[in-house]
Amino acid sequence: MSKKQQFTLEYPLRCSPSILYEFLSTAAGLQEWFADKVDERDNVFSFSWNGTTDRAEVLETEQDKYIRFHWLHQPTDEFFEFRIEKSEVTNQTILVIRDFAEKGEVKDQSQLWAYQVKDLFHRLGN
Prior knowledge:
The protein has helices at residues 17-25, 27-31, 106-124, and strands at residues 5-13, 37-41, 44-49, 52-62, 66-71, 80-86, 93-101. It is an alpha+beta fold. It has a single domain (5-120), classed as Alpha-D-Glucose-1,6-Bisphosphate, Chain A, domain 4 (2-Layer Sandwich). Strands 1-7-6-5-4-3-2 form a seven-stranded antiparallel sheet. Residues 1-125 form the START-like domain.
């Protein structure tokens, strides 16, 4: 069993779920904001940052709703997930990110996600 804990981040934005889903689920879309280079083959994505490559497989996906990845080097019960929700009150699209981190690293990991999501928002014109 992993010592890491799951945490959830939510980011409201102005964007249709289908456009957002393309940025979360395709190599071209993820390369726009998530990693320097992204390749996909047989449901395994290779993400490269500064010459270092990490691989993640797609565990589950539902068009315009969510995609769940598993880093190949991590325990099988850990994943990171992008979920697209709609606010009942404001009708705004909400990007929900679920990830795992050591208890003392949740804040740093959350800040890293915030930095990356800021780049995504820029690409989406938010």
